[in-house]
């Protein structure tokens, strides 16, 4: 049996959701068997501080050490259970001794399979302003759209100060759905990427007014199970 290695703690609620989703999907595809999973939990605050200071090399070093820990624990395939640290994913993949499954690549493949051509991206500021989503989606011929700077500031603030602290407030849900509706009407998007794995925990919906909300945690979990099997 292959073993999956996960870097979690980014934040804890998402790691729990990954664990639940992976086990459920694995059992569904194997007739009730359970997967072998090893999880290492890292310090989210340290990573955010490095990203705010644009010290991405330190973030890459830290996460590479954790992938090495997973390799020594017997992982055959591994992943980051989150979006934002994929800002250094290419470097992590280069250094890793085990194959890494990208949440961005998995989400792009899902969007392609659904026939999407114009998709919006929500997440932390690092995700919405980074190149790691556009670089992958542009190669696939999918136009990626981000919220306005003001909308991005709101989403980032709520992500850092509420969602990562396990606070999922109805007023925040309403405002984020308002931003999604604006993206639908203003930018004619045919799907919205929930590019922060806490966002599905806030919204708890797969569709908004007929437009797909792509749950990156669920998509990534499915890809990880496929990699294990």
Brief overview:
The protein is an alpha/beta fold and 229 residues long.
How would the blueprint of this fold be written?
Layout: E1 3-8, H1 12-30, E2 36-41, H2 44-52, H3 56-72, E3 77-80, H4 89-95, H5 103-113, E4 118-122, H6 125-129, H7 132-139, E5 143-145, H8 149-161, H9 170-187, E6 191-194, H10 199-203, E7 207-208, E8 211-215, H11 216-228
Parallel strand pairs: 1-2, 1-3, 4-5, 4-6, 6-8
Antiparallel strand pairs: 7-8
Helix pairs in contact: 1-11, 2-3, 3-4, 5-11
Describe the structure.
There is one protein chain. The chain is of the alpha/beta class. 55% of the residues lie in helices and 15% in strands. It has 11 helices and 8 strands. The strands form 2 sheets. A 5-stranded mixed beta sheet has the order 5-4-6-8-7, sandwiched between helices. It has a 3-stranded parallel beta sheet with strand order 2-1-3, with helices on both faces. Helix 5 (103-113) packs across helix 11. The longest helix is centred in the first third of the chain and has 19 residues, at 12-30. It is globular and about 50 Å long.
């Amino acid at each position: 049996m292959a073993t999956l290695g996960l870097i979690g703690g980014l934040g804890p609620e998402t790691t729990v959701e990954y664990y639940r989703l992976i086990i459920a999907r694995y059992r569904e595809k194997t007739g009730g068997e359970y997967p072998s999973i090893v999880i290492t939990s890292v310090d989210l605050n340290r990573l955010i501080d490095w990203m705010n200071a644009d010290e991405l090399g330190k973030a890459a070093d830290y996460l590479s050490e954790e992938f090495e820990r997973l390799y020594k624990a017997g992982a055959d395939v591994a992943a980051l259970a989150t979006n934002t640290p994929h800002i250094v994913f290419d470097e992590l993949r280069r250094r890793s001794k085990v194959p890494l499954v990208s949440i961005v690549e998995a989400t792009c493949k899902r969007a392609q399979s659904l026939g999407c051509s114009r998709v919006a991206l929500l997440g932390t500021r690092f995700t919405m302003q980074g190149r790691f989503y556009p670089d992958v989606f542009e190669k696939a011929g999918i136009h990626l759209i981000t919220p306005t700077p003001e909308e991005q500031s709101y989403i980032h603030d709520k992500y850092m100060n509420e969602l990562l602290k396990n606070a999922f407030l109805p007023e925040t849900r309403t405002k984020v759905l308002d931003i999604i509706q604006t993206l639908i009407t203003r930018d004619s998007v045919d799907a919205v990427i929930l590019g922060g794995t806490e966002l599905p925990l806030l919204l708890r919906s797969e569709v908004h007014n007929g437009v797909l909300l792509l749950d990156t945690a669920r998509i990534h979990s499915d890809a990880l199970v496929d990699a294990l099997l």
